[in-house]
TrEMBL record:
Record Pfam families: DUF1847 (PF08901)
Lineage of the species this protein comes from: Bacteria, Bacillati, Actinomycetota, Coriobacteriia, Eggerthellales
InterPro entries with a match to the protein in the record: DUF1847
Protein name as annotated: DUF1847 domain-containing protein
Length: 237
C-alpha cells in the first residue's frame, strides 16, 4: 500500500486528513455504517458520557422528541420524495395545523404554489415576504448605501419571524431568504423552522452547483472570493 501523504494517515485503507481533524476529515464513516472502530482522533472523544447523556436527555423533551420522531418517519421514504413532499409529510407527522412561509419577494410565485399545495393538504397557511414594512437603511440604523442615497428597500427577517409568531404558526418554512437574513430569521423564529429553498441567484437556487463546479468551470471565480477572504479583502463590519 502506498505511503500516506504528509499530514495524512490511512484508516481502514482510506486516506484521512490529520490536520484540524473533524468529521470533515474522516474517511472511516464507522458512525453511519456501524462498521466498528472509530479513528483514534474521532470527535466523539471531545465529550464525556455526562455530555452524551445530557444530549440524549434533550431529545426526550416533548418538542424535540416530536420533531425527531416526525423526521425519522419521513426520512424512511426520503429517497422517493421531493423535498416539497418531505416537508408536507414532516408537517403532517408533527401535527402542525398552521404553517408560516417566510419568503423572499423573488420567490413569491413559488411560495404561492406551495401555499396551494399545503392548503389542499389541509393546512392553514400564512406568508410574510421579506420586504415587509419597506424599511430603508436609516430605519434600521445601517450605514448609507455605497455612493450615498437610501439604497433599495431592505429585507426584514426579524419582523417576518415576529409576524409569524403573532399568527401562531406551528411550523415555519423558509423560501429563499438572503444569506444572513436567513440567519436572523432562524434566530428569532418562535416556531420550529425548516428550509425548502436556499437562494442562489447564479445557479437557479441550486447552491451545491457552486461546489460541484469548484474544480472545473467555476474554479477561477471561486478562487477570487477565497483569496479575498484570506487576504483581508473583505472588510469586516
Amino acid at each position: 500500500m502506498a505511503a500516506a501523504l504528509p499530514g495524512k494517515r490511512r484508516w481502514k485503507g482510506k486516506l484521512m486528513d490529520d490536520t484540524g481533524f473533524s468529521c470533515l476529515s474522516c474517511a472511516g464513516e464507522a458512525c453511519e455504517f456501524q462498521t466498528g472502530g472509530n479513528p483514534p482522533q474521532c470527535v466523539e472523544g471531545l465529550v464525556g458520557e455526562a455530555v452524551r447523556e445530557e444530549v440524549r436527555e434533550r431529545y426526550r423533551e416533548p418538542e424535540n422528541h416530536r420533531i425527531m420522531q416526525a423526521a425519522a418517519l419521513t426520512s424512511e421514504r426520503c429517497a422517493n420524495l421531493t423535498r416539497v413532499q418531505e416537508t408536507m409529510e414532516f408537517a403532517a407527522r408533527m401535527g402542525a395545523r398552521k404553517i408560516g412561509i417566510a419568503t423572499c419577494t423573488m420567490l413569491l410565485d413559488e411560495s404561492r404554489t406551495l401555499r396551494k399545495l399545503l392548503e389542499r393538504a389541509g393546512f392553514e397557511v400564512f406568508g410574510v415576504a421579506c420586504k415587509v414594512e419597506g424599511n430603508r437603511r436609516a430605519d434600521l440604523g445601517l450605514a448609507p448605501a455605497a455612493g450615498g442615497g437610501e439604497g433599495p428597500v431592505l429585507c426584514n427577517p426579524v419582523m417576518q419571524a415576529r409576524l409569524l409568531e403573532e399568527e401562531g404558526t406551528d411550523l415555519n418554512i423558509v423560501m429563499g431568504l438572503c444569506v444572513g437574513h436567513d440567519t436572523l430569521f432562524y434566530r428569532h423564529s418562535h416556531a420550529p423552522t425548516t428550509t425548502l429553498v436556499t437562494k442562489d441567484h447564479v445557479t437557479g437556487h441550486n447552491a451545491c452547483a457552486g461546489l460541484y463546479a469548484s474544480k472545473s468551470v467555476y474554479r477561477r471565480r471561486l478562487n477570487e472570493t477565497v483569496d479575498a477572504c484570506r487576504e483581508g479583502g473583505i472588510a469586516q463590519v
